[in-house]
Amino acid sequence: MKILKIFCILLIFFLFFQNHSLANSPQQVDKISKNLRCLICQGQSVYDSQSDFALSMKTLIKKKIDEGKNDDEIYDFLISKYGEWIVYEPKFNKNTFFLWLLPILVFLGGGWLIFKKTKFFKL
Amino acid sequence: MSKNIKLTSIVLIVLFSFFVLLKGLDKSNTYSPELSTTKIDFNFKAKDLFSDEEIFLDDLIKNDGMSLINIWASWCLPCREEHAYLLNLKSLHKLNIVGINYKDSEINAKKFLKELGNPYTNIITDPKGINSIELGAFGVPETFLIDNNSKLIIKKFIGPLDDSAFNQLTKLIK
């Protein structure tokens, strides 16, 4: 009886994740393509664009997901082909650290100025 | 004194931004990674336009010298314009030119070649456009000059070939 229970739980668990992954495929394509810049149409993401380039890109992303590739592997592959410019959110590395840190530095600097100018500390 | 410092810093910031933006105007808006590190993955199968056989792109890139990979389609007008350059490259330099027929119908592609001539050693079809994207292409027409041994891209031409591209190719092939 106990074995049957464990078997049922495992079966439900397995089926749940299988369906889950199938249902997620188009959503994952949408999620990845929203973070990709359409390189031949100005100001549009691959998700928004209906150009041949974007349509082929979406088909390729779907193929890569079906092959079992995760988001990072797909981004890495596209960056190797088209450069860092293709992603709206570039990865944190030696070329992009300033881009990522600048808003934090501006925020901290601005906060420091506000605290200095107001009488917050003097109270 | 403090007013002067403020004014000078504002002027400096404006000037700095102006020159940064001015320099940005000169930059090409086609973004591509370093070509010298772009190794193409030729290890994919595609259907041959004429024989209907599935062939590896790798088998079409011959062992020594250079090859040209040209992405084209019969519906693409600039492809018609550049076709004469491909025919010239083939006849003058006996270059191995591999065509990738992008999102095209087989009948139209064959009609196109019958009308304008066939400069290609082999043509593989790419009905969904996936293979071209895997090669790092932007669309049609696009041409890559490949070193057959290292499989590295020597030169990438985005858009139709013209006189200047033809001259560059001629120099590189020699």
Largest sheet of chain A: none
Major sheet of chain B: size, sense and barrel closure?
Answer: 5 strands, mixed
Report strand order across the widest sheet of chain B.
5-4-3-6-7
Could you tell me the radius of gyration of chain B in angstroms?
A: 22 Å
- Could you state the order of secondary-structure elements of chain B as H and E? HEEHEHEHEHEEH
Tally of helical runs of chain B: 6
CATH top level of the largest domain in chain A is Mainly Alpha
Termini distance of chain B?
Answer: 66 Å
- The CATH homologous superfamily name of chain B equals Glutaredoxin
Count of domains of chain A: 2
Count of beta strands of chain A: 0
Query: Uncertain spans of chain A, ≥5 residues at pLDDT below 50?
Result: 19-23
Q: Mind explaining what this structure looks like?
A:
The complex is a heterodimer of chains A (123) and B (174). Chain A is mainly alpha-helical and 123 residues long. Chain A has helices spanning 2-34, 52-66, 71-82, 97-117. The longest helix of chain A is centred in the first third of the chain and has 33 residues, at 2-34. The N and C termini of chain A lie far apart (71 Å). The model of chain A is unreliable at 19-23 (pLDDT under 50). Chain B has helices spanning 2-26, 57-60, 77-93, 106-116, 130-134, 163-173; strands spanning 45-47, 54-56, 66-72, 96-102, 122-126, 142-147, 153-158. Chain B has six helices and seven strands. Helix content of chain B is 42%, strand content 21%. Chain B has one domain: 3-Layer(aba) Sandwich (Glutaredoxin), CATH 3.40.30.10. Classes of the chains: A mainly alpha (123), B alpha/beta (174). Chain A binds chain B through residues 39-40, 51-53, 55-57, 59-60, 63, 79-86, and chain B through 30-33, 38, 102-103, 128-130, 132-136, 138-140.
